[in-house]
Write a structure and sequence with these properties.
With 213 residues, this protein is of the alpha+beta class. It has one domain: NADH Oxidase (3-Layer(aba) Sandwich), CATH 3.40.109.10. 33% of the residues lie in helices and 13% in strands. It has a four-stranded antiparallel β-sheet, with helices on both faces. The longest helix has 19 residues. The chain is globular and about 55 Å long. The chain starts with 5 loop residues before the first helix and ends in a 32-residue tail after the last strand. Bound molecules: flavin mononucleotide. The site of flavin mononucleotide has 11 residues, from strand 3. Flavin mononucleotide binds next to strand 3.
């Protein structure tokens, strides 16, 4: 899908869980990840980082860190996932935000570092993860725009192992990974689909629960 409108890209994006092994064109993953720089960010902090993995050894080590052998044997998706030619590991850092909100223009919010602010725990919503999510979304929409598939793989296990592997310092947190590659067309629909609410169950007008204006 090339040169299509934004609504087309938004509606076309679906998580892809089966990739062909075909490598991306040179420079493509860097270009897609650069879109994340345009993501909105609380206080313009942009306390996220992306580590791009493009060679097979790095990607194999990544999988070793975030999955276990039992899962790899059991999952019907493993083969398709393992062929993704690139992986973008996304990280977020609460300290970037408490530091930012310790600066004069933000200090009155009370979200900066102690003793003047309440620190990380004072944040009603941990915007470091929200910002990383916006960043991930732009990478995935960029991938859809050029006919590539992507998957946001959540952090469900292996954070300490991955941090050791990639030399990620404290207090950076592993948020998740965007896999990018060519879809091979053999996708399995997500098991999450059965929990999918209809549109009217998610969008309300004026008041909680009002589905029609
Ligand atoms: C925070 C987050 C974590 C997710 N983690 C995984 C994951 O680990 N593995 C996976 O296959 N899909 C994962 N997904 C994808 C969801 O299953 C998917 O977005 C949802 O089923 C809707 O499908 P769609 O994105 O194709 O429209 C994750 C999505 C989000 C937003």
């Amino acid at each position: 899908m090339l040169n299509v409108d934004i609504p087309d890209v938004i509606n076309a994006r679906r998580m892809v869980r089966s990739f062909s092994g075909r490598p991306l064109p040179a420079g493509m993953i860097t270009k897609l990840v650069s879109y994340a720089r345009a993501a909105p960010s609380a206080g313009n902090t942009s306390g996220w980082r992306a580590i791009i993995l493009e060679d097979q050894d790095s990607i194999s080590s990544f999988w070793q860190a975030v999955t276990d052998a039992e899962w790899r044997t059991r999952s019907r998706r493993w083969n398709g996932l393992s062929r993704a030619p690139s992986a973008v590991v996304l990280l977020a850092n609460p300290k970037c935000y408490t530091d930012r909100y310790s600066l004069p223009d933000k200090i009155s919010a009370g979200l900066g570092n102690p003793p003047d602010g309440g620190g990380e725990d004072a944040w009603p919503i941990p915007y470091w993860y929200v910002d990383a999510g916006f960043a991930a979304m732009l990478i995935m929409l960029g991938a859809t725009d050029v006919g590539l598939g992507s998957l946001f793989l959540g952090n469900f296990r292996g954070e300490p192992e991955l941090k050791r592997l990639l030399g990620i310092p404290e207090p950076w947190r592993y948020v998740g990974t965007v896999l990018v590659g060519y879809p091979d067309g053999n996708d399995y629909p997500s098991s999450s689909v059965r929990n999918h609410p209809g549109h009217n169950d998610r969008i309300y007008y004026g008041r909680w629960g009002v589905a029609e204006p």
